[in-house]
Amino acid sequence: MANIPVKKSAHPFDKTRFEALLNRRFFYAPAFEIYGGVAGLYDYGPPGSSLQANIIAEWRKHFIVEDHMLEIDSTIMTPAPVFETSGHVARFADWMVKDTKTGDVLRADHLVKGVLEARLAGDREVRGLVAQLQKEDEKKKKKKVAKTTAVQLPDDAVDEYEAILAQLDNYSGPELGDLCRKHDIRNPDTDNQVSEPQQFNLMFTSSIGPTGQHPGYLRPETAQGHFLNFSRLLEFNNGRVPFASAQIGRSFRNEISPRAGLLRVREFTMAEIEHYVDPEDKRHERFDEVRDVVLDLLDRDVQTSGSTKTRKISVGEAVTSGVIANQTLGYFVARIYQFLVKIGIDPSRLRFRQHMSNEMAHYATDCWDAEIQNSYGWTECVGCADRAAYDLTVHSNKTGHPLVVRQALKEPIVTERLVAEFNKKVLGKTFGKDAGVIQNVFAELDESRLLEIQIELANGGSTIVTTPDGRDLTLTREAITIERKTFKQSIREFTPNVIEPSFGLGRILYVLLEHNFWAREQDIERGVLSLPPLVAPTKVLIVPLSAKEEFDPLIQEVSSKLRKAGIFSRVDDSNTSIGKRYARNDELGTPFGVTLDFASVQNRTMTLRERDTTGQLIGDIDQVISVLIDLVNGTTDWADACKLLPAYDGIQAVD
Ligand SMILES: Nc1ncnc2c1ncn2[C@@H]1O[C@H](COP(=O)(O)OP(=O)(O)OP(=O)(O)O)[C@@H](O)[C@H]1O
């Protein structure tokens, strides 16, 4: 029956056909292709651009609108001192190795991963073959096994490789070098040995202005633009935290050897949130709304034990048990999950992996990556880190500009403490230039030392202080007195902590396409992209069955009504069969099609087709449009639509 939803994938994922589809329909393609292209640079074509725009539109709604975030658009070109202060100049680097004969450059951790995974895959192949040949005699078995080029590994090597892969991100450069030597890891393209790992900074350098005096960098993330504008943003938010800033924009990283299509590129669009929170109160006021969201978590301890087994746990439980460090971090992890699933990521192939201690930036307190499984393995698509107060503190220290929150206290804090009071006249006359030195020494003294000095002055009339350069100076009661004073503090000043969800849109777009690609049993050559209406580049295809002029007013009417409802449609009045027109649009992920035939002209009826089931319904044009609007907006689904409109099993009369 046409209207019953079909199981999506009748075939295993076919990467060759998938890539051919993306290329043929120009979702994206290598940039500068006619000049030979440059690795890691891609241009998006019409469907890719629309898909990205729709993902961004939903991202804005889901994060910015929903949580009243402050959106900014800061510059890409950044003067060098900013990245010197942030630590990027010293540390934004990956480890690379060189092929000792050809000089080819490879990223060290990717090399180890690729080689060990290939060896494990080979091992599985041989073991599988041996199991299959169980019943055959030994001679035949040996012969068949000898035919494969794959190698079976000793059991302990399998365990060791798996343990290495489970914590690959935890290794330092020298440790990766040790692994290459110990396991004879070579360049797989040439079988040559590789050099010791060296650090390579991923930022593209530039210079600002004609003289070259102002070195700059293309930003590798959008975050610094948020931090440098913090005091303005805080003022915009009436001086209160928590609040978040958000930014969508381009970032640039000179990746060592980008080989995984859109997953590792040198120029990409990021969407980043910096949520500023009181370090003493990281609760989130909307946490209860996400408390019951269940996630697949892969925590630090599990990885360190050499396993990659996730566990299902609610965000509420994860935060209460301390697996996720605080409510705000938990809130964002859950919101990231909801966003990814809403746009069409398969939740069974989505996990959150906690950073291991060496992997995490030294200042971060906790960090979780949303990793999505695809044909390249598990790929980080969103990072979510608690960056503590690091960024605001370093920029504030460097520039002298306070990047702090000043909060009026409800109850002023009253404290008493001993303070040194100087008679400046006597001090100046007696000690000259050392007067300032003495005052600085006293400013550093703690309460117990001040008490000792108070007693000394009361008993003997004098005390001795030692200057930083080791001289002992005698001060009398005429120059100094120590008194207990009361202080009232009505303002609390603090540097907020920052929770940062950071999205790479190209990676999300690519895995989304993979997760939604399949082929129909009867037409394996052509693919279908089951993109949710929310993000599909075109929502409705209008298919007139005849090129006759009498169809024109109806086409105009339907497209104008859809346009007015904010629904993006396209007319396909090409000369091919209706089946081909639908198939072409299945490849583009267009979820619905409406067909105008002669009955439409006579009786104002229109058929409605759903992409995944190929089911068709029929109804009055306005009724179909009304159902369509609900379908596209997600307020109804196809099963409900089937209750509202009768099924159409007829064959349309083609002119
Ligand atoms: N070279 C790249 N190409 C495409 N997207 C990227 C690239 N580097 C980072 N991203 C995206 O930006 C997000 C945030 O960047 P982040 O600095 O956390 O990545 P990363 O840890 O450096 O990634 P990786 O370890 O894969 O290099 C990532 O989750 C990813 O989606």
UniProtKB/TrEMBL annotation:
The keyword Zinc does not apply. GO terms for molecular function: ATP binding; glycine-tRNA ligase activity; transferase activity. GO terms for biological process: mitochondrial glycyl-tRNA aminoacylation. Its EC number is 6.1.1.14. The keyword ATP-binding applies. Keywords: Aminoacyl-tRNA synthetase, ATP-binding, Cytoplasm, Ligase, Nucleotide-binding, Protein biosynthesis, Transferase. It comes from the Eukaryota. InterPro entries: aa-tRNA-synt_IIb, aa-tRNA-synth_II, aa-tRNA-synth_II/BPL/LPL, Anticodon-bd, Anticodon-bd_dom_sf, Gly-tRNA_synthase/POLG2, GlyRS-like_core, tRNA-synt_gly. Residues 175-537 form the Aminoacyl-transfer RNA synthetases class-II family profile domain. Transmembrane segments: none annotated. Pfam families: HGTP_anticodon, tRNA-synt_2b. It is found in: Cytoplasm. It is an enzyme of class 6 (ligase). GO terms for cellular component: mitochondrion. Homodimer. NCBIfam families: glyS_dimeric, PRK04173.1. Belongs to the class-II aminoacyl-tRNA synthetase family. This is glycine--tRNA ligase. It comes from Russula ochroleuca.
